[in-house]
Amino acid sequence: MKKVVSIVFILILISGCNSKGKIINSGKNPGVNQQLVQDVVSGKSNQNETDVIQAPADEFFARITKKPFSIYISPKISPVQPEKFSGYHTGADAEYADVGGDVDVFGVADGTVVYSGFVNGYGGLIIIRQDDGYSSLYGHLKITSLIKKGADVKRGDKIAELGESFSQDTDGERKHLHFAVYKGDGLNFKGYVQNKKDLAGWQDPVDYLKSFNVRL
Ligand SMILES: [Zn+2]
């Protein structure tokens, strides 16, 4: 009898630890937070998801290994050989030459596609005029995969696939994503500028993305 009383006492103590009256353990599924389960089912536990910004491609940050934003290059000193460009880099390049198959490219913010097509130096190119006052540029894309001009894009939507190395889709470049962000809503195709001060209108894409809650 004494044993039963002690067990009851211990049970009362345990239930007293469940503060704020929340159901921590309904008894049906020991250890499972029923409220959390309900939230997951109803989607409520993902309420922070709306603040998460999509990176423009998987492993985007880790793959910026050759040309980060603002690096000065010329055919002589470029980390990419052979090199046909020179100047200060207006975007960041993420390298995918080692990845076989399709690499999806995603819009990083809500907006409207204002350019979709071939541009010298890029191959397939998309520019999105974003609702936040910036424009984002995605270069070296497979031309047949491009979302059309005028399309509305929601953050995280797939907008294209990367072009394969040394094809028309990359205008003869390796398989990589040139991603750039600039202030304003005009069309700006420049991949390099000749004076450092001309980088002023461009954002460091890494800083820009990291100012949000980026999905890595
Ligand atoms: Zn680039």
Distance between the termini: 58 Å
Strand content: 25-35%
Report helical residue fraction: 10-25%
Q: Helix tally?
A: 3
* CATH class division of the largest domain: Mainly Beta
Helix-strand string: HHEEEEEEEEEEEEEHE
Small-molecule binders here are: zinc ion
CATH hierarchy: architecture of the largest domain: Distorted Sandwich
Described by the principal axes of the CA atoms, the overall outline is globular
Gyration radius over CA: 25 Å
Task: Please render the helix and strand layout as text.
Layout: H1 2-17, H2 34-42, E1 52-54, E2 72-73, E3 87-89, E4 92-95, E5 104-106, E6 111-119, E7 123-130, E8 134-141, E9 152-153, E10 158-161, E11 176-183, E12 192-193, E13 202-203, H3 205-210, E14 213-215
Parallel strand pairs: 1-14
Antiparallel strand pairs: 2-3, 3-12, 4-11, 5-10, 6-7, 6-9, 7-8, 8-11, 11-13
Zinc ion binds next to loops.
Description:
14% of the residues lie in helices and 28% in strands. By secondary structure, it is of the alpha+beta class. It has two domains: 2-42, no CATH class; 56-215, Glucose Permease (Domain IIA). Strands 4, 6, 7, 8, 9, 11 and 13 form a seven-stranded antiparallel sheet that branches. A three-stranded antiparallel sheet has the order 2-3-12, with no helix packed on it. The longest helix has 16 residues, at 2-17. The model is unreliable at 7-47 (pLDDT under 50). It binds zinc ion (ZN). Zinc ion binds at residues 67, 89, 91, 93, 178, 191.
